Amino acid sequence: MSLHAYRAALFHTLDDPSVSPEAAVYHADGLLVVEDGQVTAFGPHDDLRATLPLDTPVTHFPGHLITPGFIDAHIHFPQTDVMAAWGARLLDWLENHTFPTEQAFVDRAHADSAAAFFLDQLLANGTTSALVFGSVHKTSVEALFEAALARNMRLIGGKVLMDRNAPEGLTDTIERGREDTEALIRAWHGRGRLGYAVTPRFAVTSSPGQLAMAGDIAAAHADILIHTHMSENTEEITRVAQLFPDAGDYLDVYARYGLVGSRSVFAHCVHSDDDALRRLAKAGASVAFCPSSNLMLGSGLFRLKRACACGVNTALASDVGAGASFSMLSMMGEAYKVGQLSGDALDPLHGFYLATLAGARALHIEDRVGNLEPGKEADFLVLDLAATPLLARRTAGVASLAETLFILSILGDDRVVAHTFLAGRLAHSRNGVSGLAQDTAWQPITSPC
Ligand code: GUN
Ligand code: ZN
């Protein structure tokens, strides 16, 4: 049995604080108690400390904030090397930047090294769970899952299905896509903390037969996710209407093939109208809001308030490599700026919810992660409020949690993430100790109870 307590300011959400303000829970001097990888208590230090055995090790982080790990609701593992592409919009970005880069993932050694880099970036940025696109190659997803299993991350991924409108080396077929997807589900779904998502790239690159096959697989496995893109860019939408002339709209394309349900996550939905958003809400599906990507590709301004008013669960996502940062703190900042352009400034507590519990809800892992309620897996972050001279100066004397979080989201990034813990074990430290060796190498400053 391992029992350890962590003392710092604590913050998490029990629900959407823009709907229920009391769902934002903050303790200025808090204690997080972790036993065998799970949270056993989260509350005020002075109340909880007396309940612990006298020899409980307590690590104190003055000037730090402990939060749940971030959850990235949509990201592409093979796209690290297309980040920061200049001047492209979605369809030409795919053709000229992304598809050539994804071709390299046919090589297992390349996929292995890219997976290690990608996951270490997630951990360095405080992202402890993610919903991840692989490439079309089965081995790319094997590389990703193997690396995530070794790090004990709660991660959901899938092999891209793409049987048309893409270069030859990047397409599969209906049968090949089915065989590879079924084999990956058998080998990886439910192993460690991993899960599988059936991943048709988008309606442009899958034939009707392939979308139907994806729907069949989803129907046969009640607990896997469906993960795709929708209504990101106006040229894409026109293309989909040409390819599926009988469909009522873009969402209807997916609905016709059984791909719209409570376990579906649709990235973007920038141009989805109220009717589509309400149908998504009715189905219990989720939207991944990708502010950095939408700005980088000039796709448009996602109207978060409208999506919330339509009742659809919306989570935050980096969409690396169209997105320009792995940092979910930066995504909160970008989401705020998108809101400003639409006349709806995002409240920092709401932004934080989007990057944690809303993501867990979208990924159907909210019974395990997303906040630090007792019984949850202890995926948590130690955030340094004075990580840079500017942050130290700007956060000094700030009394309000909302303002502190806002400053972190605008001025912060991976430098703010001092430590990342996965299921109670240290997985990353900003001090540079390498990811997997840290558990034994790290010597916390502990004080006896
Ligand atoms: N739509 C289809 N594929 C992609 C992709 O890789 N990235 C983004 N942002 N949109 C897409
Ligand atoms: Zn994407």
CATH topology name of the largest domain, in short, is: TIM Barrel
Distance between the termini: 17 Å
Give me the CATH superfamily of the largest domain.
Answer: Metal-dependent hydrolases
Average pLDDT metric: 95
The total number of structural domains is 2
CATH class of the largest domain: Alpha Beta
What structural category characterises the helix and strand content? alpha/beta
Radius of gyration of CA atoms, rounded to a whole number: 21 Å
What is the helix tally?
Answer: 17
Residue windows where pLDDT falls under 50 for at least 5 positions: 434-445
Report the CATH architecture of the largest domain: Alpha-Beta Barrel
Strand content: 15-25%
- Shape assignment: globular
Largest sheet: 9 strands, parallel
What proportion of the residues is helical, as a percent range? 25-40%
Q: What ligands are attached or bound here?
A: guanine, zinc ion
What would your notes on this structure say?
There is one protein chain. The longest helix is centred in the N-terminal third of the chain and has 17 residues, at 108-124. Helix content is 37%, strand content 24%. The strands form 2 sheets. Strands 5, 6, 7, 8, 9, 10, 11, 12 and 13 form a 9-stranded parallel β-sheet that branches. It has 2 domains: 3-68 and 370-436, Urease, subunit C, domain 1 (Roll), CATH 2.30.40.10; 70-362, TIM Barrel. The protein is built from 17 helices and 17 strands. Mean pLDDT is 95; it is low at 434-445. It is of the alpha/beta class. β2 and β3 form a beta hairpin. The two termini are 17 Å apart. The structure holds guanine and zinc ion. Zinc ion binds next to β5.
